[in-house]
Amino acid sequence: MNSSSYNYNVSSGLSYRDSLSTAVAKNVIVLALGLTINYINGTLIHTFRKHQVFYVNPRYILFIHLVLNDMIQLTTTISLFVFSYVFYKINTSFCCLIITFAVFTTLNTPLNLAVMAVECYIAICLPLRHAEFCTIKRTYTLIAWIWALSAVSTLPDVFIVVATKPVQLFYSTIFCERDNLFSHPISLKKRDVSYIIYLIIVWLTLFFTYFKIFFAAKEAKEAKEAKSRDGDAKKARNTILLHGFQLLLCMLTYVAHEVIKGLLYWFPKHYAHVVFVSYIMIQMFPRFVSPMVYGLRDKTFRQHLKKYLLC
């Protein structure tokens, strides 16, 4: 989950460490980007809290959960990035806590995107039953299920470590990377299987909702129905396309090793730089997309957001 930790996770015979000036520059860039994204996300959350029109709408509740989830994920991965330069090794118990939050929030993202796509589908294709299906109570229940599914996939790794590793491990220091902590073969196999299952379900959901909304927009146009419905369908279709783009970026996390190997094949002498660029693209850029989907594209949210963004 933490691609940033590849910076020093190489054999001692190789000299891939950055110079002091390069290390400082990279950490400044990561912190600046992270603070900027979290500032925007924090402003979105503040806007959500200040106006009742948002927290009685399931669509905005799901969106703000995604934003809050991204803030936690970004904070944990940036912390690991900085720790890899400043401390190199940290306490194993503390590492386990950070890694667990990073994994939780990383798994939450595609599930949240799938639920948001279904909400768009119901709003466009089943408008008369939207109020019945998409209630506030059911929305919070779905959010609880998202965290529960992530827990089912993540917490067994923690239990395996506790059951198979000596107690002294949790008082020692470790280079904080998921594969270093959850290295048991069962954990590695379970991770691969769970990733495949999650991504298949989410992609099928996105494809199903997209094409249903696409055909609904086409039917509305052919039947010459109200322009508002056609416009709403097109907007929902574009939103799901953005969800798919977000998901595609999030999937890079699952193939980070292969991406880095491929880049190193072309740039074998620039290991540290390859890892840094990969971290920006895999961990940070997907979190920059989230505020764009509703925060800036949504007219209602944008109208209120302007009051707080620069204040």
Could you give the topology of this structure?
Blueprint: H1 20-50, H2 52-55, H3 58-86, E1 90-91, H4 92-125, H5 130-133, H6 136-164, E2 173-174, H7 178-181, H8 185-222, H9 227-251, H10 256-266, H11 271-296, H12 299-308
Antiparallel strand pairs: 1-2
Helix pairs in contact: 1-3, 1-11, 1-12, 3-4, 3-6, 3-11, 4-6, 4-8, 4-9, 6-8, 8-9, 9-11, 10-11
Task: Provide a short characterization of the protein structure.
The chain is mostly helical and 311 residues long. The protein has one domain: Rhodopsin 7-helix transmembrane proteins (Rhopdopsin 7-helix transmembrane proteins). 79% of the residues lie in helices and 1% in strands.
Report what the structure shows.
- The chain has one domain: Rhopdopsin 7-helix transmembrane proteins (Up-down Bundle), CATH 1.20.1070.10.
- The protein is 79% helix and 1% strand.
- It contains twelve helices and two strands.
- It has a two-stranded antiparallel sheet.
- The longest helix has 38 residues.
- The N terminus is likely disordered.
